Records
---
Amino acid sequence: MNTVPFYRSDVPLDSNDLATCQKVLDTLCSEAKIERDSEEWRRIGVIAIQLVQQGVQEHGDLLAMVRTARGILHPDGDNEIAPYEMGSEAFIKRLDGSANPYAPDSVEAKEWEHGFLDAHRVSGLS
C-alpha cells in the first residue's frame, strides 16, 4: 500500500493555532512598540505561522522562538537569555549539542536542549 507522508504543515491552522499566533504577535509587538500593519509586524506574524505549521504548539515555546528569530529583547530589561532561547540560538548558529553550558541533568540543561531540538525540528534539517 502506498502512503503519502503526513506533515503538520500540510494541515490548515485551526482556531487555536491562529489564537496562539495572534497572542504571540500581540505580545511581541506591544513589548517592542511595533506598529500594526508595519513590515516588522508582518514578519513576526509570518514567522509565528510558519513555526506553528512546523509543529511548535506551546505558546511559551513559540514566543521564545519568534523573539529569538527577530532579536526582540525581554521587556523587563533583563536581557539575560533564557536557557530555551540559548539552545535555539545555538542551533541557529550551527553549534552542536556539546555547546550546552549548563550542568548535566539540571533543569536549565534540559530547557537548553529542548530549545536546541525544537529549532532543529522546525528547520527541517536532518
---
Amino acid sequence: MQDRDYYLSLRRKYEPAKPKLVTVAEAPPASGGAKSLFKGDTHPDFVIFVWFIDATAPDLCRIFVVPAQTVSNDVLKAHRHWHSRPTREGQQPKGADRPVISWKGRDMERSISNNFSEKWKKYEDAWKLLDG
C-alpha cells in the first residue's frame, strides 16, 4: 500500500490538462446485449479504483489501476451471471439494470460479483501500466 503523498504525486503527474468525466457504470440493458460499460464512442484506457478501507482513516486505501476493457468485461460478465439466475422466490432480480461489484466477500452460485480485490490483485498499485 502506498502512502497518500505517493498517490497525489502520481495523480498530478497523470492528471490531464482538460479532465473529462467518464461514466464507468453505464447500466447495461436488461436483455444483456451491452458490449461495454462505457458510454459513447471514446472509451478510457484505464479505470482507477480507490477503495477506502476505513471511513475513520481516509488515508488508508487500496488503489487499483485496471485496464478499462478488463473492467468492462469482468463487470458485465458478473452482471449477466447475476441477471441470469432468478431469486429464491423464482423472480427476476430487482435492480437488474445496475451492475454492482464488491471488493470483498466470496462468490456464490448466484453471484460472481464479489472479491474483486483478489480478482484484480495484479492491478493493485499498477501505476506502471500508465507509462504505456
---
Amino acid sequence: MSRFLFLQGPMSTFFDDLISQIHEEGHSATKIIFNPGDKTHPASEFYQDYTGTFEEWPKYFEKLVNSRGITDIALYGDCRPYHERAIKVAKFLNLRIWVFEEGYLRPEFVTIEKDGVNANGSFRFYQHGKMAEIEGEVPRRSVPSRMVSLHRNRQAISYYWRVFWKDCHYMNYISHRKYIPNEEFFIWLLAYGRRAAYKLTQSSKRKKFEEWTENKHFYFVPLQVHNDSQIKTHSDYESVWKFIEEVLYSFAANAPSESALVFKHHPMDVGYEQYQSRINDLAYGLGIKERVLYGHGFDLTRALKNTAGVVLVNSTVGISALLHGRKVKCMGKANYDLGGLCFKGGLVDFWKSNFEPSKRLVREFVTQLRLETQIQGNYYCYDSAFIERCAEFLTGNPDKRLNKMKKEQRDSSNTKA
C-alpha cells in the first residue's frame, strides 16, 4: 500500500477528488493545508494544517513523512518555495515525487511527471523507434475551451475569496506569487474587465492579425506569464520584457526586410502586465514599428499554421509549433529543445534559416511524451474517468498504462475506419 502526502494543487477541487479516489483503491493520502484557499471542502478528514513558518517547514515535513510512513508526495508546480524544499527532503528520503502541471500537449492534457517538470523532470527522449507502436494523432479537445475557462475562473475566484475572508489562522504563509492573495483576487476581477474591453478595443488588431497571417511573411512570439517559474528558473531572463527586448533588437538587425513580427500576450497575464507602450517605443526607435504587432486573443492555431517561425522562451507552445511543422527557437531551457526538433543556432541566424524540424522525430517525441507524462483531461472541468486515470498513473504500473494506450489507439483507428 502506498501512502501519499499531497501539497498544494491547482486552484480547483482536483486534489481532493484524487485523494478520495486513491483511498477507494486501498491506499492512504493526506493533504497539507497552507492557507484557506487550499480547503476546497468545508471539512475533510484528509486535511492536515500547516501554520508554522517557512523556515520551520523542512523539519516539519520530514517529521510528518517519517511519522506517517509516507512513500509518495504529490504537488502542483515544482518551483514554489514550499515545494522546492519539500522535494529536496523527499529526494534525501528516497520518496517517489509526483509533480502535476498544465499539459505539455495542449489544450487536451495535463502533466504528471516524476521528480519535476520541464527542465527539472525525469523525461528523457530516446530515439530508437520504440514509440512507433503507439503512434497516433493528439486527440482533439473533448471539453470546449470556454467551458474550461469558466470553471477555472470560477474556482480561482472562490480560492481567493476564501483567502480574503479567512486568512488569520495562516498568518505565516508565504505565497509563491508576487502579489499577496487578497491583491490576486482583485487582479482576477481586473482581468475580467480588461477581457471584456479588449473585445471592443482589439478588433482592429485582430483584423490586422488575420490579414498578416494570410499575406505576410511573419514570425510569431507567444509571451509567457510575467511570473512564470519557467522564466525565472529555466532561463537567463530577469523578466518577460527582457526577452521581448532581445527579440526586437535581433529582428530589426537580422530579419528579412519584408518580414513582420507578431507578439501574442498570454491570456492568463491580462490582469498583471501590459507591454504595448514599451513595444511601441522600442519598435519606433528601431525603425520597425510598422512591422510589429502586439495584441490579445490572437488565434494560436491560425498563427502556427501560417508563421515562418516561432521564437519563445520555453513555453509549451513550442511543442504545438513543432506539430505544425514550424521552426522553433527556444531561448530558455525546455525538454523539447533538442537537435532535430528545434533550431540550435543563435537567434541572429534564426530569421533567415531554412531549418525544418524532423517530422519523424517530432512524432516520436510527442508520442513518448504523451505515454510517459500526459493524461487526457483538465483540472477544472472533469469527470470521474479523468480522476481514475490520474490515480492509476500514480498507483499503477507502466506496462498496464502502455497496454491501455495501445487499446485506445486500436479502438480509435477502428472507429475512423
